[in-house]
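Issue: ligand-bound run for pyridoxal-5'-phosphate - logging full I/O for the record.

Environment: standard queue, default settings, no custom constraints.

Inputs:
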Amino acid sequence: MTRPNTHAVHRDWDKEFPVITRAEGVYLYDSTGKRYIDGSGGSSVVTSIGHGVVEVSDAMAAQAKDFSFYPAHAFSNQPMLDLADLVVSLAPGDLRDHSRVWFACTGTDANDDAARLARQYWVESGKPSKYQVIGRWQGFHGNAISVAGLSGITGRRSIFSPMFIDSPHIQPAFCYRCPFEKTYPECGLLCARSLETLIRQEGPDNVAAFIAEPVVGAALGSVPAPEGYFQVIREICDRYNVLFIADEVMTGWGRTGTLWGIEHWGVTPDIVTSAKGITGGYTPLSAVIAREEIWGVLEEHHSPFKAGHTLNANAVSCSGALVVIRYILEHGLVENARERGEQVKQGLRALMPGHPIIGDVRGMGLMVGFELVKDRATKEPYPPSLRLSRLLELAALKRGLVTYPCAGSVEGALGNMMLLAPPLVITAGQIEDICAILDDSLREVEADPRLKA
Ligand SMILES: Cc1ncc(COP(=O)(O)O)c(C=O)c1O
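Outputs:
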């Protein structure tokens, strides 16, 4: 295969990457003029307000004319101050008007900083033995060596695992393939209660925090925890003095049909991380929102937060985020995510009788996933060598639909899922287009002789 762009490294060696030249609403256009529906909201679950909203680029350009970078060790900047006020006024649960925000660049930074904050808080609180952050298998929190260790994506961990720090994991909350082979609600939420077992095994004096995504994104193909799960997690964390970090990098800012994913469970985390939808992909920015008392302990001890990257809280990024968040609220996008998300799930379920390879449809709001199986009754997956989700991704891309292929629902090693998370501005007609393209694409993939082998 000829590679036109030879100096830039892309995410795959074995396929062409069309060059995007323009984007508007839910559509991307490549250099040949071909149009694609941004069905996964970027890579992935990013493009909250859609592409090409001029209010965002105008605000960022105006700020860039004044200044964009500032020496953060010596100064503050007004867009950051305004953004912190806005974020705190919208924070979930008891964090609303009772938290402070630290701004970073990416979701990975935010989760790394959340782990640092938990550790620093316990050290300054006189409990310096507390250092471990418990994660979940098939969770994802970012790609730095530190947070990759908290994550539980087997495929992405394997090469680097000797370099990870000591982060224990519990099983995911995944009813379709329950790791305990139980059925909800008779299971008594064993998946949540296993956190208590692990904390006791590790020793509560060693555990600083537990981190989880309210709806697992890329690692499981949009799997919400069952009702009651985070209530049990909250109660266990409180009992053992463990901070609860909600990774809302994907689920924040309306994506799941509420402003924050964790609101579906009605509990308040101690720390919330946010990225992606906060700027809708217009510019890099992330945030760590933490309880006032946590920052208060650091302040009391005159202990500056020991984190920070050169480009954190960039004024241009903060001015863009201000417009994006207001746009979400003013255009009713949280409600649209709820309504259109139901339509996506109904559309996918309507495809199931004609496409036996769809084993499960799941998700919340406009964060929807479906799993591909060899046998719907037994849930047997196709062999990983087939790279089935990638085959479907390419079939859809050919027809002008971007989807996000995921793998590893079965013990991190097997299983194929697709993630759909179009911009929250999507219309009913555009969702019908997505379902029609998927229908054709599934038919093409199902006809592949390798699936019969
Ligand atoms: C839940 C979750 N947390 C963290 C991250 C890392 O964010 P970033 O890619 O901005 O570093 C991701 C990225 O996909 C994510 O899905």
